[in-house]
Design goal:
The structure is a single chain. 40% of the residues lie in helices and 17% in strands. The chain is α/β, with parallel strands linked by helices. Strands 3-4-5-6-7-8-9-10 form an eight-stranded parallel beta sheet. 49% of the residues are buried. It binds NADP nicotinamide-adenine-dinucleotide phosphate. NADP nicotinamide-adenine-dinucleotide phosphate (NAP) binds next to helix 9.
Amino acid sequence: MQFIEAKGCRIPAVGLGTWQLSGRDCVRVVEQAVRLGYRHFDTAQMYGNEREVGEGVRASGIKREEVFVVTKVAPDNLAPRQLERSVKDSIGQLRLGEIDLLLLHWPNKGVPLKDTIEALCGVKRDGLARHIGVSNYTVALLDEADTLSEGRLVCNQFECHPFLDQSKVLAACRKHGMVPVAYSPIARGGAKGDATLQAIGKRHNKTAAQVSLRFLVQQGIAVIPRTSKVERLAENIDLFDFELLDSEMTQIAELAHPDGRIVDWAWSPQWDR
Ligand SMILES: NC(=O)c1ccc[n+]([C@@H]2O[C@H](COP(=O)([O-])OP(=O)(O)OC[C@H]3O[C@@H](n4cnc5c(N)ncnc54)[C@H](OP(=O)(O)O)[C@@H]3O)[C@@H](O)[C@H]2O)c1
């Protein structure tokens, strides 16, 4: 496994996304993923599966310090007291001790960012989370949050795949020394049917999904593909025995288009881009 580092935080370059995994299936997939080499698990208060993710990690028998567990504070819990209470609840659900990386899941205009960032820094100071970061933050919000946190944020997690140009937010992450983490990195399965990714994959004896993931990892972006299928778990982590040529990277970057976004921001309390 390769790692991407920022400010003393080492994030395994491939993690398992767990949105929509639930119940015994979630426990089973997480446990199996550990066996196949996954060391990074992405959950959230909003996914309702922190308990199962923790159970899967424990059932695998791996040492706690060998896995990197990420959870996210729901946008309804961003007021300081609620934030702290909800993080304690997440820890109780996960039963893995300190959270490795705690993110603010979505911005919420209804709560002053200063208050939320102070509370987030507070839970880190109190030993509830080893590292802190954000998710779905725009360039302007990243600038503001970085200043308010005095540079303590290590990550921004956002939608990123070949069909969407995220160069501005990527540049902002680099400017602030934050690891970019790509969600929906195979475009919710959309990468599989793309002719360009398939053709490039054929040359390397890889699938289109693997090319999509490799395209991101090769740029220093961590990826958290989700699957409920054990055979795909192995496929999605098998990215480190080939390298895309510069010409192939350019060809893939050209797949980005203005309607490439999958996740609708309209529901979010702060949805301006
Ligand atoms: N921070 C945020 O706001 C946010 C938002 C969205 C997602 N996320 C995180 O990011 C994770 C990943 O994003 P995502 O779930 O939206 O999308 P994704 O990982 O790009 O795609 C998941 C879909 O692709 C299919 N799939 C997985 N591997 C495949 C492969 N090798 N070939 C073909 N199809 C494959 C899966 O189906 P099968 O199960 O049938 O394999 C599933 O339907 C989430 O689970 C969540 O942890 C975070």
